[in-house]
Structure to design on (312 residues):
């Protein structure tokens, strides 16, 4: 939870770029810090590193001295804030057109709350009754395990793209109380939107456009993955704990099949975490050999990256 001051003026929307940076890093985990200068440096928005990083006593002295450097620092801050907003806020502006929240509020609403609001709006529009809140119940979560401790070399990572959303669509794991089947349609449309954003990102040549599209697809990735969380959301009118349990069961079974396959080819599995596996390939396991040897269902598993070392 982040404490922050909230301002409200009728007809205006206040969006804090500090919060935008926080939410961006939830999925990307690539920011060194959340100060404006840190984020501007990450996205290469700084016109001058010396001016942008002017803070503390140095900034105070520049202000008291009425120096040209202070004016340049102020102008630099305004420009960086505008550039950062142009980069990270458009995806939320789009969401304000999807969810029944205004531009300012949609940013700070939880994903499950947004999804629930979509359900309620459509059910009200169709003048359909709303089910009572379900009784919460415990269920088994995703599969996590550690098979190796110490330092491992030549570590690979494979994961299942959009594991839980794919399971829900493939195996019809939807809320039984959703008589209008809003859940299925929303999940399908958001996945289509994200895939289109990823395709545009790969085709984009301009770095700023790539950053924007990456932030856009990542926002919808988080939303997509939140549909599973909504199934187990106690305050969700259409939550379904049995469906949530079925999703995680299928996910656990799939990961165990992946582990069996890797072991059969001589790989050493290090760790498994919900939707991905860290492993060391066999001595003769080149990327092409491992890639050609895959027999996963619909080839959702991808070799994600090489890492020089992994310690557990």
């Amino acid at each position: 939870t982040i404490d922050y001051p909230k301002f409200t003026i009728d007809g205006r929307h206040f969006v804090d770029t500090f919060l935008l940076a926080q939410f961006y890093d939830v999925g990307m985990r690539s920011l060194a810090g959340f100060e404006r200068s840190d984020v501007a440096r990450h996205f290469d928005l700084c016109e001058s590193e010396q001016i942008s990083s002017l803070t503390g006593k140095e900034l105070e002295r520049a202000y008291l001295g009425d120096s040209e450097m202070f004016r340049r620092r102020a102008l630099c801050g305004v420009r960086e804030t505008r550039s950062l907003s142009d980069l990270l806020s458009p995806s939320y502006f789009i969401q304000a057109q999807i969810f029944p929240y205004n531009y300012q509020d949609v940013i700070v609403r939880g994903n499950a709350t947004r999804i629930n609001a979509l359900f309620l709006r459509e059910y009200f529009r169709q003048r359909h009754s709303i089910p009572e809140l379900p009784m919460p119940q415990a269920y088994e979560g995703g599969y996590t395990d550690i098979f190796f401790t110490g330092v491992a070399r030549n570590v690979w990572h494979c994961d299942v793209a959009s594991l839980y959303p794919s399971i829900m669509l493939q195996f019809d794991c939807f809320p039984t109380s959703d008589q209008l089947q809003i859940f299925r349609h929303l999940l399908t449309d958001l996945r289509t939107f994200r895939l289109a954003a990823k395709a545009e990102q790969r085709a984009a040549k301009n770095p700023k456009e790539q950053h924007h599209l990456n932030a856009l697809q990542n926002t919808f990735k988080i939303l997509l993955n939140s549909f599973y969380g909504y199934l187990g959301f106690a305050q969700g009118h259409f939550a379904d704990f049995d469906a949530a349990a079925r999703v995680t069961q299928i996910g656990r079974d799939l990961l165990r099949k992946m582990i069996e396959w890797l072991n059969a080819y001589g790989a050493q599995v290090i760790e498994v975490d919900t939707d991905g596996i860290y492993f060391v390939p066999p001595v003769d396991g080149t990327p092409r050999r491992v890639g050609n040897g895959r027999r996963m269902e619909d080839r959702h598993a991808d070799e994600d990256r090489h890492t020089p070392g992994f310690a557990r």
